[in-house]
Design a protein that fits this description.
alpha+beta; 9 helices
Length: 338
């Protein structure tokens, strides 16, 4: 594309150096020579483009810019010398034209070809890096937007009137039945809300912190649903120092609990385990006929989008008739937003 922008002035200059003033003395001289030259160099620079793509693949990173250019330019200079020799041979033996090549300008033709290759190479790198920069800016803004949405979902979780009402209702029942259990319930409820507040401005947290939250959260859910929900946490201690976005498990667990039927006759099973460097959340699939899915599904979609924008492996959601499996990749080190 860069060459297409410069091919007309390139052709005019190279024809002047090769054929002298003769090519511009009449339209009958100018048009055929311009057409032949443009076609020849279009094919020639297409080959240059293939060589450039090959070198680009060998040195694809942005920090390899000068190394990439340092390899490209010598290769292009050698190709230019061969291209210009072929150019002279084409007008001497293949193209019928009244304008004969000016052999004394051969050195200037070589120099101009190499100069043009240098300019085109730098222009091409500038265009490519400009495109990468725009893409990076867009992805950064999308990531910030996804992060702000996750903060909003966390805030909604903190002040969710249904969740608070259910917690206080369960606490009220426990106070009259078992004060020791009521005290433990209140302690876990405090841990849940303290964690939501503490992670409000963090981009990633350690897995062990998320698991502590999950245990407290599931304790509250279990106290409310009783034998209608069974859960199992089995996570390797060797990976608990890896990272994931804060409140990821809240989004997933809320989605599981509030979009599936949970009753004594039809209990809901869920488990949190590990596979390689990923968290595996499984649950029995028994969707409610009517539920408020909008925000819950949006929260899960936002988490998936956040992973995609952070350059991590994507979250996988796989479903069968009776089970859903969510695979959440873990970060091996903390990643901060730009």
């Amino acid at each position: 594309m860069v060459f297409l922008w410069v091919i007309l002035p390139y052709t005019i200059v190279i024809n002047f150096l090769l054929l002298g003033d003769c090519v511009y003395t009449s339209i009958s001289h100018f048009l055929p020579c311009t057409g032949f030259t443009m076609l020849y160099f279009f094919v020639g620079y297409f080959v240059f483009g293939l060589a450039g793509v090959f070198i680009q693949r060998k040195f694809p990173l942005s920090q390899d810019l000068f190394k990439r250019i340092g390899v490209m330019l010598p290769v292009f200079y050698i190709m230019n010398i061969l291209l210009m020799l072929g150019f002279y041979a084409m007008y001497q033996h293949l193209v019928p034209t009244p304008c004969l090549p000016v052999k004394s300008n051969l050195l200037w033709v070589f120099l101009f070809g190499c100069f043009a290759s240098t300019v085109i190479t730098f222009l091409n790198e500038a265009v490519v890096n400009w495109s990468k920069w725009k893409k990076a800016v867009t992805e950064t803004e999308q990531l910030k937007s996804a992060y702000q949405k996750s903060k909003l979902y966390g805030l909604k979780g903190q002040i969710n009137p249904h969740f608070l009402f259910n917690c206080f209702n369960s606490l009220s029942s426990l106070i009259s039945e078992n004060q020791e259990q009521a005290e433990q319930f209140l302690n876990e409820m405090t841990k849940v809300h303290r964690y939501m507040l503490r992670t409000d401005d963090e981009h990633l947290v350690e897995l062990k912190e998320e698991l502590k939250f999950a245990r407290s959260y599931l304790h509250l859910i279990s106290a409310r649903f009783g034998s209608a929900i069974y859960y199992d946490l089995n996570v390797s201690t060797g990976l608990i120092k890896n990272y994931l976005p804060p409140l990821s498990l809240q989004v997933i667990l809320e989605n599981i609990v509030y979009t599936n039927i949970a009753s004594k006759s039809q209990p809901l099973y869920l488990s949190i385990g590990m596979d390689d460097n990923s968290l595996i959340i499984k649950n029995s699939l028994q969707p409610k006929v009517m539920c408020e899915e909008g925000t819950l599904l949006e929260g899960l979609d936002n988490l998936i989008t956040k992973y995609r924008l952070m350059g991590q492996k994507e979250i996988l959601v796989e479903e069968t008739v009776s089970e859903r499996v969510i695979t959440v990749p873990l970060f091996t080190k903390a990643v901060l937003l730009p």
